[in-house]
Amino acid sequence: MHRSVRTSLLISPAAVSLVGSIPSATAISTSWVRRAGKALEAVAVAPDGSVYAVGGRRQSITVAASLYKYTPGGARLWRRSWVPDPHASTKGEVIDVAEDGTIVWGGGLHGQCEGSGWFLEWRSPTGRLLHRYITPGWACRRAEGIVDISARHGQVVAAGYSFGCCSDPFADGWVRAFGMDGRPRWTVDIEPPAPTPSEWFDTATGIAAGALGNLYVAGWAANVRIRSDADPRLGTPILVKLSRGGAVLWSRRLPAVVRVYGARVSVAARADRVLVTAPVGGRTLVRWGSPATAGWLAALDTGGSLEWQVRWDDGPDEGASPTHVAIDAAGVAWVTGTRRDVVHRDLDMFVRRYGPGGGPLGMFHAGGPLSMRGTGLAIVDGGAVVSGARGTDWYGSRGGRLWRLAA
Q: Strand pairing of 320-327 and 7-11?
């Protein structure tokens, strides 16, 4: 089935020399597909090639956060689920695997009231629980969540934000670090660069560790004062570089407009390249009924200087909402998320590949009678593993999906 593709690329002079070294476009094929739970929200690959995915599955009247382990060939080895009590619900949303194979995963934690907290678990490759952290006051006295984690260089670092209840538009991004023993280490607020007032709203929604242990945190920051939930939510993606100990090294606003509440800005780092992706423009993510966001990907060096940026699915009826980006050993960017299917008026999971200079290297998509969304991505030798779910959002999800893709 033919789908229209609109891609625009802006490249800085410093990146022009890279264009000639872009790997040739290769078709993306499916090696295997697996189903699990209500939805799968994130995926990670261990040093030994094992695949771990997290999401949730229906358990009585609530939902239990679940962690799944698969072999490189897609055989499921085990599942672990957790809720603190029968009246609570949890959802697996974040996962990473440390260099020694320790699995760190977590997500949202909800009681029978407004607000929410979050949790993290450290588990061995056999699934044995090592440590668990639960936010104090998660039942009705807290409103915050984590969106991404990094388990590298002997610590676990979580990116998230606190938010207002009901119609309160408040949002405040932060990063919190833990030791591999599960104990909290440090916390730092994430802020855009001056002269933005510190009380203006911001989020932290992506984190990646660099080769030297520095941390790159992506998020959103308002560029106007927002007084109520009826105000336009105008802002830009931001990128903040932290030292391993949490010292702020620099903060940058990036050249795009993000105006949708709950938009995720994701980041990946490898060698001397940092990639940031976000849903930009529009007034809704990819749902039908109003102008949708377009996909956006930018490459920067480790000092925060922009090298190139690219947009896609930005036509009048098109739309895309990227959720995760990763970089493979050849320097190729892999981006996943959800896009509009303009033929069937539903949604597709997509995967796009871009070369080191920003040139497009092809796309994969999956849809069906019910919409499909893409949620997470992890690089494996010769391709990637992508998580997702059938349905337009978490509440309407009717089954998690895991794709092993080859390129």
A: unpaired
CATH of 9-406, one of 3.40.50.1980, 2.120.10.30, 2.50.20.10, 3.40.50.2300: 2.120.10.30
Q: Dig out the tokens for 391 from the structure.
A: 């349905």
**pLDDT tier at 5, thresholds 50, 70, 90:** very low
Model confidence, pTM:
0.93
Q: Which residue has the tokens 């789908």?
A: 3
Residue 179 and residue 190 in contact, taking contact as beta carbons nearer than 8 Å: no
Which tokens is 263 given? 């938009």
Q: pLDDT tens digit string along 20-69?
A: 344 667 789 999 999 999 999 999 999 999 999 999 998 777 899 999 99
Question: Contact at 8 Å (CB) between 337 and 322?
Answer: yes
Question: In DSSP terms, which residues pair with 220 in a beta bridge?
Answer: 203, 237
Alpha carbons within 13 A on the beta-carbon side of 362 = 14
DSSP 192: P
CA distance 155 to 402: 27
Residue 282 CA: distances (Å) to CA of 140, 314, 389: 33, 9, 23
d(CA 146, CA 215): 16
Paired strand residues for 343: none
Whether residue 195 is preceded by a cis peptide bond, meaning omega within 30 degrees of 0, is: yes
Tens digits of per-residue pLDDT, 291-348? 999 999 999 999 999 999 999 999 999 999 999 999 999 999 999 999 999 988 899 9
Sketch the domain layout of the chain as residue ranges.
9-406
The most distant pair of C-alpha atoms in the chain lies apart, rounded to whole Å, by 58
- Token duo for residue 203: 């989020």
CA distances from 61 to 7, 55, 223 (A): 44, 17, 41
